[in-house]
Design a protein that fits this description.
- By secondary structure, the protein is an alpha/beta fold.
- It is built from 5 helices and 11 strands, in the order αββββαβαβαβββαββ.
- Strands 1, 4, 5, 6, 8, 9 and 10 form a 7-stranded mixed beta sheet that branches. The protein has a two-stranded antiparallel sheet with strand order 2-3. A two-stranded antiparallel sheet has the order 7-11.
- The relative contact order is 0.21.
Amino acid sequence: MSFRRLSLLAAVLLITATVVVTSARAQTALVTDFTLKRADNSALTLSSLTGRKAVVVVFTNPGCPFSRLYQSRLNALSSAYAAQGVEFLLVTAPINLEQTADALDADKLKVKTSGDAGSPFTDEGLKTAALLGVSKTPEAVVLQPVAGGFTVRYRGAIDDNPQMESYVKDRYLKSAIDAVLAGQTAAIAEKRASGCLIKKN
């Protein structure tokens, strides 16, 4: 085998190993607790939700075109899984719209919204966003209660087609929730989200 082929083989193995490690880390990260604020300024802690089968945290912003595109889908998911012990937490995060090319493209579309997937929470100082490794809106994180806290089972995009729900092929968030409820590992633990960049303090 030539040196070139050996180099290519080594590169492929390295990339594969990196993907496996990244996926493993995404599904073993432990989150002990965080606090979000309701509109009335009362607090909700993650630790108060240990009785749930899963907690889905979705960072969103009403000014982000992508968040508006996903509003009805999030509402449907929240309603569908409420009776199965899955808690949805929508967290409003500030965005840098002028720095988001994805959002500029989405804003050219006619955005239809319907319903409201729950009352939004606020994340003071973006501490929870930093803790969960979230950088865009909308971006979702699926947490499963375990001994000592919660494990991150999925982080990233809601599905593979923000603009056209009827063209969606891969429903990443739904698949991750279904895997948790079935006691299985999500086939995809992390998927890059398309959306508006969260504005850091």
